[in-house]
Write a structure and sequence with these properties.
The protein is built from 7 helices and 9 strands; from the N terminus they run ββββαβααβαβαβαβα. The chain is globular, with a radius of gyration of 16 Å. The chain has a single domain, classed as Rossmann fold (3-Layer(aba) Sandwich). By secondary structure, the chain is an alpha/beta fold. 38% of the residues lie in helices and 21% in strands.
């Protein structure tokens, strides 16, 4: 699905359908420099399909144009993501959004505009996501070595949210140790499956 973008290119939104008439959808909202094919989101999509969900993998306009994002352009990214998601969500009854970093802000903003029931998994959110987490609630996952999000932000998050702290993980939810990083992916797969099948 090609969607025109402010950045003078087309965003190639990948919509994987398991079967006609499926009523379950996962939307992947990538991070600023963390597209959907990177491990944390790749396995989120794989878990979703394994759990019987169709998957919409978003690409942002600046990513399609292979350019840098300016902070002032974040509302444009949110608007284009909304335009990408809006024509599809009406076909589904069960919707889960898995978002990463900047994508957690975009996911919150799009949810606010759409006003449909959505379950959230917020992966390595940024401080600007806190109001959305408190408004929509969900599962929040972050690493203890993440400079963008830590205990200070966690204190601002309401109790009904499930918080998962991953020891020694950085903003990419990885460590310097390959084995540990693979263990983290296993831990994340369990989180995805719990949310998707609940």
């Amino acid at each position: 699905m090609a969607v025109p973008s402010f950045w003078g290119t087309e965003m190639k939104q990948k919509h994987y359908r398991l079967n006609e008439g499926n009523k379950k959808l996962v939307v992947l909202f990538p991070g600023q420099n963390y597209p959907c094919h990177k491990p944390v989101l790749h396995f989120a999509g794989t878990c979703a399909m394994q759990s019987g969900y169709d998957v919409l993998m978003l690409e942002y306009g600046y990513q399609a144009a292979r350019t840098e994002l300016r902070r002032s352009e974040v509302p444009t990214v949110a608007e284009e993501s909304y335009e990408s998601v809006k024509p599809i969500v009406g076909q589904y009854e069960q919707i889960v959004w898995i978002s990463k970093s900047l994508g957690t802000v975009i996911a919150g903003s799009v949810h606010e505009k759409l006003g449909v029931p959505v379950k959230h998994i917020f992966l390595t959110p940024v401080p600007e996501t806190v109001p959305y987490i408190n408004k929509f609630s969900g599962v929040v996952v972050y690493g203890t070595k993440d400079p963008a999000f830590g205990e200070e932000q966690e204190k601002q998050i309401q109790a009904e949210n499930r918080m998962i702290r991953i020891a020694d993980a950085n903003h990419a939810l990885e460590t310097d140790d390959v084995e540990k990083s693979i263990e983290i992916l296993k831990q994340l797969a369990k989180v995805y499956e719990d949310v998707l099948n609940s």
